[in-house]
Amino acid sequence: MVKEIEKAGMPVVQMANLIPVAKTVGSNKIVPTISIPYPLGDPNTSKDEQWKLRYHRVGIALEALATGIKEQTIFKVKI
Question: Structural domain of residue 48, as residue ranges?
């Protein structure tokens, strides 16, 4: 689906935890997530920590949208 949306002229960032799959399907801009059941959170942490984690990952995704690239790129995130 990412490739079809990009063909229409809209930039796309895929936030994915399975990076090899995202690369295989042709996603150009990839932001790693945490896990399959909780891509943007960790229920074992406080609500404040979860908010910080989500804020950071979504911020990276927004930066990725504004970044011009020539090849598939995996954007770095804090662990």
Answer: 2-74
Smallest CA-to-CA distance from 57 within 38, 72, 70 is with 38
Contact 61, 16 (CB under 8 A): no
Domain-located, residue 31: yes
The pTM score is 0.87
Amino acid of residue 46 = S
Domain annotation covers residue 79: no
CA–CA dist 35, 20 (Å, integer) = 14
Q: Which residues pair with 30 in a beta bridge?
A: 14, 74
- Total domain count for the chain? 1
| Average pLDDT over every residue of 40-57 | 92
With CA atoms as reference, report the closest residue to 13 among 69, 75, 53, 64. Answer: 64
